[in-house]
Amino acid sequence: MPAGLPGTGLGGVFLILSALLMPVVELRRRMRGRTGLGRWRLVGRHAALAIGMVAVVLGPVGAVYTALLGSSPAHAGASARSAGPNLRGGPMSPHVAPILITLVALVAIIVIAYTLRLSLLVPARRGRQPVRPIDAEAPLIESRDSAAAGEGGGHGGDPPSASAAPTSASA
Amino acid sequence: MDATDPPPVGEKTMRFATFRGDRRATEIAGEAGRVEVTAIVPAFNEADSVVETIESLRRQTTPPVEIIVVDDCSEDGTGEVAREHGARVLRPPANTGSKAGAQTFALREVRTGLVLALDADTVLAPDAIQLLAEALEDPEVAAASGFVLPRRVRTLWERGRYIEYLFMFGFLKQIQDYYESPLISSGCFSIYRVSALRALGGWSDRTMAEDMDLTWSFYREGSKVRFVPDAICYPIEPPNLRFMRTQLRRWSHGFVQNVRLHWQGIAHRGYLRSLVAVACWDALVASAAFLIALPILAFLVTPFFLLGYILDAPAVVIPVALAAARRRELMRALLSLPCYYVLRFLNAAMMLKAIWLESVMRKPLLVYEKGH
Question: Is residue A60 classed exposed, middle or buried when 0-12, 13-18 and 19+ CB atoms within 10 A define those classes?
Fold first, then answer.
């Protein structure tokens, strides 16, 4: 996930689903001879983790969904009339509704991304920026040499962008 | 030992001598058939930490043949300290303005097939380089990165980051790697195939997240990127709010900038495309839900909506606890868990602000600020 959003929202769901699908993908790769038996350990571990994560989240999700519906004024009236069976035995149980909503949103995003890809395939090729390879032989200043021999000069090529105040280095 | 001395030849080191006949595979081995790596350590005012970084490089089972410290016009004697400890020190004529600039400045001096980029506040597990280099035996792999764990886990922010990394590197990133699409080859510790890196012009400073830019550029060119969970590095993470905000500002702006720059180039990679699309949704919608929707709904409808902040806690706990237990740090992880939710709030705020500034106000972040 992008900086700072690991496991938040749909990203987490997407990766959990990815983990759940790993045995299927691995089986397909195995049938095509693209993988070895050793990878099943990784696949099994992650699929098991994903199953565990789904299992432990379903309870709280259902509870919160039930609590939210129960506290909603509009729904409270409906619940009172039906004495609650809508939530437990109705067509949309508390576990199913949020899962369905999440999955629909996830599929919609993936389909939108795929559609964008189809529509932008040609511009993507046309808009590719040429890159400038590094000249391995270009001269540069080495502080050790400079200090010892008083040498100077540029480091070749375009100078790197410099900010007014010294910034940079390790993050 | 001098920086240019050949590394000791151990049994594990010699394993790299058996390459396939492919040109890109053999180019990472030196004349003696061993893997040869040059380490580039960009540094700006890192005199306090660079020694440990150099020493950890020397202790590697596959030590680099040369350690280049790019002293980016430091004012605290970083260059002198690094030189005293045997590193070769390069000093640009002026501050390069970014980590990318400092690293690219040194790239032209690299004579080996592989180059390691390592932050000056980061130390490595003894076999980290060896494990990463193994991933590049595959000639299609251009870069590989490892497991990142905070070296210090004391403050609220360090603890939050500790949980975040355990979750991300212990679970999420391994899934991304399985689908051959790690989102980023982490800038603090990655190894690169020099020919592939030079073909792209080195590390670019056109975005605030040069590691994401480089990773997605590799994908665009058809190369592979790998994540190696057993190769562990330990950077110093931002210890306070000020530094954390600075780092997150750079990361969040960098993410938005890279999506705008690369989305067409990575669209042909199915899994990565979906991953980035979902990440964009999360960056916008999940952040807005965290900061705006949930508080409003909690106030207007029912306080139960506040449970949305911790709804995924059980799912986070499982992989985090497993990863921590493997390291015998279960108690530390459990005690640190609440800090993760504080950090997540800040993450959401910084991400939303970055999207607003970059996409709506058209005010991109252009000046690279050091995170700590």
Answer: middle
